[in-house]
Amino acid sequence: MTHQRTPHHVAIVMDGNGRWATRRFLPRVAGHKKGMDALRACVRHCGERGVKVLTVFAFSSENWNRPADEVSALMELLAVALAREVPQLAAEGVRLHFIGERSALSDKVRDGLEKAEAATAGNTKLAFNVCFNYGGRWDIAQAAARLAARGEPITEASMAEAMALAHVPDPDLIIRTGGEQRISNFLLWQAAYSELYFSDKLWPDFDAAALDAAFADYASRERRFGKTSEQVAQKVA
Prior knowledge:
- This protein has helices spanning 17-22, 28-48, 68-91, 107-119, 136-150, 156-162, 208-219, 229-236; strands spanning 9-13, 53-60, 94-99, 126-134, 173-176, 195-198.
- It is α/β, with parallel strands linked by helices.
- The protein has a 6-stranded parallel β-sheet with strand order 3-4-2-1-5-6, with helices on both faces.
- β3, α4 (107-119) and β4 form a beta-alpha-beta unit.
């Protein structure tokens, strides 16, 4: 049994920028810059194919452990990219959301995030969630802490409403590039019934054809959500 070819919500672990650069004897930051080009194209491809929500893992809470010069370069790259990309994203109907702990970010970066969100707040074609200084365990912990502070009971429903991605449905498809086959602390709560797709392509090489291959694989799967194939078939019928 197949289903709609295009997933409503696609989430991506964009892995392989550093290796892409190393294989070309370039500094790692060159890979991150090339990865930004791939991301810009991916946003456009998703919009063209009818995806309504795109969530990407841009910087994890564990990435602070990388070399200081790489972290600094990543932060600067984000600030520059925001200034350059936001007008185009706004024109294309993309609404930006930055998901993650902002207290550790510089005032410059934090201000850039807020301005980018405000500039695209009225758009409805594609919700684009950028997980920056994000971790799945952090997300669960902050949701529980928020409920506890309000004195509310902790249930699956209340937790779901307190999560950082409560404004969108859970991802239908999670793609990871770079050949690794793990979640790496990404969307732990939201990934409960997501389809997982792993690509050997390094992120800077993940193009429209690679995205279409992921969607085709997704369309061939049967999503049962704990039910039997017969139950799913009856519901469709």
